[in-house]
Amino acid sequence: MKTQPDNGTTESMNAHNRIALGMKRILISLGIVVVMIPHGMSAAGLSPVNLGTTDHFMILSGAAITSTGGGIINGDVGASPIAGSAIGLNAAQVNGTIYTVDATGPAGSVMAPAMLTTAKGDLTTAYNEAAGRTPVPSGDYLNPNGGNIGGLNLGPGLYKFDTTASITGADVTLTGGPNDVWIFQIGADLQVGSGIHVILAGGARAANIFWQVGTSAVLDTFCVFKGTIMADQSITMGTSSTIEGRALTSIAGVVFNASGGSLPAALQEPPRFTHISRTGANSVTVVLATTTNVQLTLETCSDLVLTNWSPIATNIPVTSPWTNIDNTAMASVTQRFYRAFLTFITP
Q1: Is the peptide bond before 48 cis (omega within 30 degrees of 0)?
Q2: Which strands, in side-by-side order, build the sheet including 272-280?
Q3: Is 192 in contact with 225 (CB distance < 8 Å)?
Q4: Of 104, 91, 190, 183, which is closest to residue 147 (Cα–Cα)?
Q5: Cα angle for residues 159, 206, 58 (degrees, 5° grid)
Q6: Is-contact 205 228, C-beta < 8 A?
Q7: Gap between the Cα atoms of 295 and 344, Å rounded
Q8: Which residues have a Cβ under 8 Å from the Cβ of 136 and sit 6 or more positions away?
């Protein structure tokens, strides 16, 4: 390893041609680990549905949100126009913010009626835009396999179901690149069978999968689902199911009995330190640009010895940049290093 001073203020080190560790001494020292991840080429074809201000909601409902022991939700939750008292979740269950139209919501919720009205309007716009995509599907893209896509391997594109769409009997695989888009126009219900998986292959991402549902969607027990559901009526997530995406309903409610739900991961941006400063005798403010909706771990040490790194924060940021205040930085320590990394968890 070679270290070269830069005007006496910076040092750089290269290792294995894949990880760059940069250190800059300000009032303290910081360490930066950057993992280069190639981005896929832009693919011609469908553009993603513009979700507007609904983008940060993992659950957005027109009526009650109920749960009987559901797991953790990574993302924001909101309901409108129904009262906040109809949200049957608690702050400990939501790694994000619960937004309500009034002051009757769960402890720790935030009253934001105007914001919720805007988000519900954006949901209507997104729903109509997805439902109105053309050209009208035909051939293999119209009612594929009679409406049951279980067992199929579907490439990107616009698919239409005149009535109910189902995924039963076998898993469905969506194969494409990281910028490819799938839009499913469903005239009636979406039914996903118990234990069924929506499998992504070839770099396909849940962020680019949209299910426009004319009535209601049911994700049965133990299923693993990918993509954003925009349902006119209700969405039900059964016991031990998981979803990487969003559950957005216009009129009716959401039942969240799933073991976990998370917003879809964005294209991976490695954590990048954008600001660091000592803000008190024993505190340091650290700001990172990072991939949203992916688990971020921030670690620190004072001497760069590998065994001395210790975690000070683990979070799933829903916005970037992300800020952390390190209250473990003692004034007696003259230098301190930081590093951050992402952990991708498939629900």
Answers
A1: no
A2: 272-280, 283-289, 322-326
A3: yes
A4: 190
A5: 110
A6: no
A7: 7
A8: 142, 160
Type of residue at 213: V
Name the DSSP class of 266: P
How far apart are the C-alpha atoms of 49 and 228, rounded to whole Å?
A: 10
Cα atoms found within 13 Å of the Cα of residue 215, Cβ hemisphere only: 11
- Of the candidates 237, 293, 229, 247, the one whose C-alpha atom is nearest the C-alpha of residue 75 is 293
**b/e per residue, 173-189, with b = 16+ CB within 10 A?**
bbebebbbbbbbbbbbb
Q: Closest Cα partner for 343 from 304, 309, 306, 317?
A: 317
Residue with tokens 């797991």: 71
CA–CA distance, 46 with 24 (Å, rounded to integer): 43
Q: What 8-state DSSP symbol labels residue 87?
A: B
Contact criterion met (CB below 8 Å) for 204 and 245: no
Asked whether 229 and 263 are in contact (CB, 8 A), the reply is no
3-state percent helix, strand, coil for the chain, nearest multiple of 5 = 10, 45, 45
* Whole-Å CA distances, 190 to 167, 218, 229: 8, 6, 9
Instruction: Give the length of the chain.
Output: 347
What's the rounded Cα separation, in Å, for the pair 51 and 49? 6
Which pTM was predicted? 0.71
Q: What is the pLDDT along the chain (347 residues), one digit of tens a residue?
A: 333 333 333 333 333 333 222 222 222 333 333 222 222 223 347 999 999 999 999 999 999 999 998 899 999 999 999 999 999 999 999 999 999 999 999 999 999 999 999 999 999 999 999 999 999 999 999 999 999 999 999 999 999 999 999 999 999 999 999 999 999 999 999 999 999 999 999 999 999 999 999 999 999 999 999 999 999 999 999 999 999 999 999 999 999 999 999 999 776 678 889 888 877 777 889 999 888 778 889 999 888 888 889 898 888 887 778 898 888 777 677 788 899 988 865 54
Phi, psi of 84 (to 5 degrees): -60, -25
- Residue entry with tokens 């939501």: 94
Give residue for tokens 């070679």: 2
- DSSP-assigned letters across all residues of 165-231: EEE-SS-EEEE--TT--EEEEESS-EEE-TT-BEEEETT--GGGEEEEESS-EEE-TT-EEEEEEEE
